Please model this.
Amino acid sequence: MIKFYGYNDGRAIAAYNKRNLTIFLWLAFFVCVVISIIAILIPFYELLYVWVAYLVVLLICIFAMSFSKIDNKTLKEKEIKTKHLFVIDNFKLYRDGNEIKNSNDINFCVYKKYIFLQLKKTYYIIPNNEMPIDRKHFINKIREVQFGTSIEKIMAEIKEFVNQGELNGTFEFESEKIIWVLGKHKFTYYIDLHEIYVSHDKLRFNKFYMDYTHYHIDFNNVKEQMKEINNKWGK
Model:
């Protein structure tokens, strides 16, 4: 169980506005690049004036960001709660004792001094100095909530399946990787929460491996994929 505080105060509002303006500026930049390519290919160089419009928008956004902070005193006067207790337990996220039931509503962005946590209708910042564990592991815990599992759990399930003895070949288990040598073939499973990357190399001279192919599969399909591989190359 991990407990931490999230703040939807003036800092969170400023971070939210800054994030949205940054996304808007990147999209506008992309549009300008596309229009510039078209202007050069046609050629119709008057289209390049779009960069002037982009510069004006950029200046407006920078000006808006400088006034994006909201006084926390104002929030307190309106009796808006700005400090919330979060708990991560068994791949679930709780806010003030209530479970966030839809994991699709949980999103986050990593910044230098804090993590920006966005739920369905609210958003919070978690400062680095208030994280209960180190930053890297804390990020992993949020990702585990999003996917409802952990790399350790996936590894344990695959290992349990392998230990049933239905597969041929030899297996080597590492922290986030499984190496399966099957006859003249080597399969390396790189485990992630989003998907599993499988590298298939062909054994040559019982020592060296040459690049063969690779797959991207959902971890729920690993067992069936292993059975197919075993039936194809394990006999």
